[in-house]
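COURSE: Structural Biology Practicum
ASSIGNMENT: Worksheet 4, Part C
STUDENT ID: 0417
INSTRUCTIONS: Below are two proteins. For each, the amino acid sequence is given first, followed by its structure token string. Answer the questions at the end about the second protein only.

PROTEIN I
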Amino acid sequence: MSGFVRGAARAVQSGPNRPVISQILGISWWNVGWVPVIGAALLTCIGIVAIGTTEPDFALRQWAYAGVGCIAAALIVVPLPALIERWSPLGFIITLGLLVLLVAPGVPEAIVRARNGSRCWIDLGPIDVQPAEFAKIAWILAGAWWLRRAADVRSRSGLLLPIVLTAVPVLLILIQPDLGTALLFFPTLLAMFLTQGAKRWHLGVVVLSAALLAPVSYPMLKPHQRARIDSLIAQLTGDDRYSRTIGFQADRARTLVGSGGVFGNGKESAKNLVRFNALPEEHNDMIFAVVACRWGLMGGLLVIGLEVVVVLGALWVAITARNPFGRLVGTGIGAMLGFQAFVNIGMTLGILPITGLTLPFVSFGGSSIVASWLAMGILFSVAARDARAGGTMGGSATRGNG
């Protein structure tokens, strides 16, 4: 204890350019990790206000979930990136075990209860946990650990094993079924492959193969999934025959987006519009429609801009990281959050089929926002300890510990 006090005293005497906490924890607090964190904080506040437009009780719960997420982010900043890297395979195995629990036969309904035909949540009494949200982060960390150690991604065989390993959580999530979350993994993996130096023509072959196989997979989709695709095609061609059935949610979402105009409606008017249109999942998957209804085009562009800030901030962390693990983690988190936001906003605007994805930091959901904030804490940990010159906002390099 006395050694700790002496160390703190030396830090105080070291001058204004070396903050006390930086000396004690080895963290450079003035770093680019603040860019995605500030963007995420603003999105969280906008999301809570939007949720409170129609669901005040849910908004209060979202405040609590966001608080837990921020605490989790602060705690994950403390360990060194090298320690996070070392334990990432174990975290991935644990989340795989939870995904297996969701789909395993014989699990009591008191633990896993199907909702709307999906087994996505573990019942912990006062709260429900959605393991797939945490599996996304655990998979990125484990993937970064594997890619920097064992995979020669410049060879075709080196690409194959990470793809196979990624298929394991994807299949478990598809069985639930949760198609939207499952779709996030492979685009993120491609981004991490590029970061690690994979040959572009190899990745082009993978993407082309997936594109050719996509139509073949259509008959294997569940009836409601095929119906959503049919509804989207009909909607894009001006056919409204699905607008009162499977396409009702998409039709109502587009109506509310248009009702916002340029500057939106007042709180009460927006509340009445959302309720009158009976938009399903307005506080969750379709929260962007509520944002556009209440704050109009300007509000929608602000949310899109902040999502871009979070993604570019994550990529900035990746670019300035000296350690390959940090580069891969920053790329993975940025790619996954970016693709998720793109799909959510696209399905709300009616240009993509509805898949049940949340809008990062904005949609209601405890597991979603806690996992997203956990990702922010990991980014900040990397930026604060593993940045090259340019990774600190003052322009000076920090000493890497990863």
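PROTEIN II
(use this one for the questions)
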Amino acid sequence: MKAVRPKRARVVALVAVAALGVAACSSSKTTSSGGSTTTAGSSGGGGGGGAALKLGFFGALTGPNAQLGINIENGEKLAVQQFNATNPAHTVTIDAFDSQGLPSNANNGATKLIGDKVVAVIGPAFSGESKAADPIFEQAGIPNVSASATNVALAQNGWKYFHRVLADDSYQGPGDADYIVKTLGDKAVAVIDDNSTYGAGLATAFAGQVTKDGGSVAVTDHLDPNGADYGSTVNKVVASHATAVFFGGYYDAAGRLIKQLKAAGFTGAFMSGDGSEDVRFVQDAGGASVADGAYLSCACADESNNPAAAQFVSAYKAAFGTAPQIYSAEAYDATNFVLAAIKSGATTPSAINSYLGSNSYTGLTKTIKFQSNGNISGGTIYVYKVSNGQIVQFATTS
């Protein structure tokens, strides 16, 4: 789930969308278009006098990894703003819940949004809070579409109202292992995670593929993402003689980990997943001198140089004063799929959920077609590298 990257506009696989309220493109089946309720169309001309509907947001807007949630909420806001400007039959507002990324806040958040009578939710953003909140949304019959929660097990609960618009960690973890072992040639890998649902799940998927690829897990360890001193973990890595480190977790802890590894003399490769793909990873590491050379991955591409992305980038910059970042476009697509349902006349949670399950949506990042378990089919894992303090996409995994 990143902060503003200097000198670079970050967007995921985009196609053209008008900056002043033009609806997103459509597939052969569809035509697109903490805790307070806001009218997201206010800066885009507003909606008409039609029926008002609440669309929820659930994710971190404050806390150590808040930028990932902010990126998602911004993508949702832009989609709603544009919808309201061109669809007078309905006015959609956003009812946002700031989870701070904590699973312990999930019950209150889900209960609040349900009580507020939202018709659908964009989120939850993180896998841990999804694990806690999604059963509550399921029981209440509220469709939820995540732009970023990638834990594999979320799709294995038989939930009918759960959806996500990107590939899960059964793609990302093995893809990352393939890159370290097969492409970089590192055979002894230390696997560290932050004990979160997301981080531990990604690290487990990674470790399983390392051995399949002919490598070995030199050491496994877990750290406290709220801690400042990772000396115990760093000592284990150095003593193991690992030639590479993989970290499953978020950017706040990842930056501190690589900083302490480098200070202890570790010179091997460092890689982490999408939770760390944020410029604050570089900042927390102590700058480019430490972070340069680190690898990060995501089930999302950077299409900032794609001319078809120009109008979306322009609209996003105009609305938020910054270029789109990781998951902004996924959130935009997820929201527009829900808005397409509303535009079709599906205005209740059950009707929206039926629409999501029986239609496809051609968005900015991909054509979205949900399987019965809420997953999409397939997915490519993209590799980014920190170069001169910038996070740059340059490869895909095998």
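ANSWER KEY EXCERPT:
Q1: Confidence is low (pLDDT under 50) at residues 1-49.
Q2: The chain has two domains: 37-167+304-365, 169-298+381-396.
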